[in-house]
Inverse folding.
């Protein structure tokens, strides 16, 4: 009998500290989708993962049907289609998608240039930080008087964006703490302190739940 046919759960190829993988794990965990976890070393990706998804990025989810989902937002959407008891899926995607596009596009580009200046010779890490800060101020404005980005309830957009804001904040925690971003800082702390985030960041998990 092949290994495939003995599988009990979908397989999630993940990297603990990857923000894309974090958002996927959070949605899967929230939806109560049990997964077998494979922690990937980005410098030496498993052949089994590359066979499923040759583009070589994590997360990759292989369902029991054999179907492969290899984009983090698609994994989130699939998970919440199984169970969205906390109503994370938005009633309209327009605003959520626009904010995520800005996060995954311009903000992520600036985050990488700020966090990994050695990868961008000739780039200016502090210019990138200040460009990223513009997005953080936008988020801070949205969060004024709101616990979360769409109102008082956590939703898809918070979870999709939060791991990237976390990385940006951690790049220089003292600098981040000194910024006038009180609503964003409170939002970040709430999500960092959540049981959900703690659960998906536990080390050496063989299964997600
Ligand atoms: N668009 C992809 C991006 C995923 C991504 O870039 N993941 C990074 C890790 S954080 C990766 O696997 N990079 C490939 C590498 O470093 O070799 C998604 O949303 O799933």
């Amino acid at each position: 009998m092949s290994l495939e046919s003995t599988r009990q759960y979908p397989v999630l190829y993940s990297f603990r500290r990857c923000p894309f993988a974090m958002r996927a794990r959070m949605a899967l965990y929230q939806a109560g989708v049990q997964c077998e976890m494979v922690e990937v070393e980005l410098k030496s990706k498993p052949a089994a993962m590359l066979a499923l998804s040759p583009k070589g990025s994590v997360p990759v989810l292989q369902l029991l049907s054999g179907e492969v989902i290899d984009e983090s937002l698609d994994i989130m959407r699939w998970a919440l289609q199984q169970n969205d008891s906390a109503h994370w899926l938005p009633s309209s995607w327009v605003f959520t998608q626009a904010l995520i596009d800005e996060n995954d596009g311009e903000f992520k580009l600036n985050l990488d240039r700020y966090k990994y200046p050695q990868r961008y010779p000739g780039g200016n890490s502090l210019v990138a930080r200040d460009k990223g800060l513009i997005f953080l101020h936008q988020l801070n404005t949205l969060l004024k008087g709101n616990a979360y980005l769409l109102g008082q309830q956590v939703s898809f957009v918070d979870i999709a964006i939060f791991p990237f804001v976390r990385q940006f904040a951690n790049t220089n925690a003292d600098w981040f703490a000194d910024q006038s971003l009180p609503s964003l800082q409170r939002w970040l702390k709430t999500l960092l302190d959540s049981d959900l985030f703690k659960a998906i960041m536990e080390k050496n998990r063989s299964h997600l739940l």
